[in-house]
């Protein structure tokens, strides 16, 4: 939990900010008055006010009210946000950035005395099942890391890694929910093609995904071992896995993760 006196100000109130805001407000010790958002899209700002009872405001007001500023705009928008915030940043602020690819040094170049913590969360934060990795910038000490960790802990699991791992983390867990959602989409479509009704297919796929994830987390066995346990010799799973291997699923997943990691680096270079 964030301390009673902290106010967390979000710059950008999109999907990721909402996931973090909902997590923060699930923490009963956090009051709606401790969360503010600066969101340029008026309908989106209205939605956040109506849904979460939080206040929306401009940059100056946000910097005035908040001591913890969370940057949750697209990486491409980060430079203009830095410029807008710069006149209002003081020694009492810290910055937490969730922008993919954007290095802490990008913020530090302008906010030269401000502690910055870079974070890569993911959207399951919205349901308290996120995983976030935090990495300290040059001016961030243990106290700032602890604040970032306490905020992220309201949305799920938190790990700390060196910043040079964050582009890779972005490709695995930041982007990762999309891999599983795509697999679910494809499995549901395939289920209907073998004669199962779409609603039933959805239930089958969702519970299978949930069960597999819980087994992976709790059984103590690794993914390959758990897969082997499903695969009877000469059986149905072997028939399916043979097709996936023959058609290059391993290469496809590896290429996808490399592409996401490279795009994260590229987005950071543009910011
Ligand atoms: N969506 C995801 O799964 C994840 C996103 N991220 C990062 O979170 C950041 C936000 O991503 P999303 O929430 O997906 O994008 P989004 O497009 O849903 O949200 C961005 C919000 O910022 C607002 N905005 C644009 N310019 C602004 C400005 N100058 N001042 C204030 N608000 C402004 C937009 O109106 C929009 O509501 C990105 O940097 C992304 O890399 C990180 C991890 C996961
Ligand atoms: O697609 C993106 O760029 C963001 C970062 C990780 C997940 N979504």
From TrEMBL:
Q: What is the lineage of its organism?
A: Bacteria, Bacillati, Actinomycetota, Actinomycetes, Geodermatophilales
Q: Where in the cell is it found?
A: Cytoplasm
**GO BP annotations, alphabetical order:** L-proline biosynthetic process
- Annotated residues that bind NADP(+) are located at 72-75
Q: Which InterPro entries match?
A: 6-PGluconate_DH-like_C_sf, NAD(P)-bd_dom_sf, P5C_Rdtase_cat_N, P5CR-like_CS, P5CR_dimer, Pyrroline-COOH_reductase
Task: Say where the protein is mainly found.
Answer: cytoplasm
Query: Gene Ontology terms, cellular component aspect?
Result: cytoplasm
Function statement:
Catalyzes the reduction of 1-pyrroline-5-carboxylate (PCA) to L-proline.
Spell out the protein name for this chain: Pyrroline-5-carboxylate reductase
Q: Which Pfam families match?
A: F420_oxidored, P5CR_dimer
Domain Pyrroline-5-carboxylate reductase dimerisation as annotated: residue spans: 163-267
Q: What is its EC number?
A: 1.5.1.2
Residue ranges annotated for the Pyrroline-5-carboxylate reductase catalytic N-terminal domain, each copy included: 8-101
Q: Which reaction does it catalyse?
A: L-proline + NAD(+) = (S)-1-pyrroline-5-carboxylate + NADH + 2 H(+); L-proline + NADP(+) = (S)-1-pyrroline-5-carboxylate + NADPH + 2 H(+)
Q: Which of UniProt's keywords are assigned here? A: Amino-acid biosynthesis, Cytoplasm, NADP, Oxidoreductase, Proline biosynthesis
């Amino acid at each position: 939990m964030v301390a009673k006196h902290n106010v967390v100000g979000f710059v950008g109130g999109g999907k990721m900010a909402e996931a973090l805001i909902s997590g923060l407000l699930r923490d009963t010790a956090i009051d709606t008055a401790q969360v503010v958002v600066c969101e340029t899209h008026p309908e989106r700002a209205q939605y956040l006010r109506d849904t979460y009872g939080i206040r929306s405001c401009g940059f100056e007001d946000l910097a005035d009210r908040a001591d913890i500023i969370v940057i949750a705009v697209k990486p491409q928008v980060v430079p203009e946000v830095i410029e807008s915030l710069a006149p209002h940043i003081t020694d009492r602020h810290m910055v937490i950035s969730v922008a993919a690819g954007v290095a802490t040094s990008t913020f530090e170049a302008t906010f030269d005395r401000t502690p910055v913590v870079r974070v890569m969360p993911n959207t399951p934060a919205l349901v308290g099942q996120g995983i976030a990795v935090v990495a300290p910038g040059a001016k961030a000490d243990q106290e700032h890391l602890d604040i970032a960790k306490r905020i992220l802990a309201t949305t799920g699991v938190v790990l700390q890694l060196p910043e040079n791992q964050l582009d890779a983390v972005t490709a695995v867990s930041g982007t990762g929910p999309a891999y599983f959602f795509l697999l679910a989409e494809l499995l549901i479509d395939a289920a209907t093609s073998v004669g199962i009704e779409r609603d039933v297919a959805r239930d089958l796929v969702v519970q299978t995904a949930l069960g597999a994830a819980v087994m992976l987390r709790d059984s103590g066995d690794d993914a390959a071992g758990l897969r082997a346990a499903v695969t009877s010799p000469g059986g149905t799973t072997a028939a399916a896995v043979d097709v996936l291997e023959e058609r290059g699923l391993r290469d496809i997943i590896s290429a996808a993760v490399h592409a996401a990691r490279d795009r994260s680096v590229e987005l950071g270079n543009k910011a």
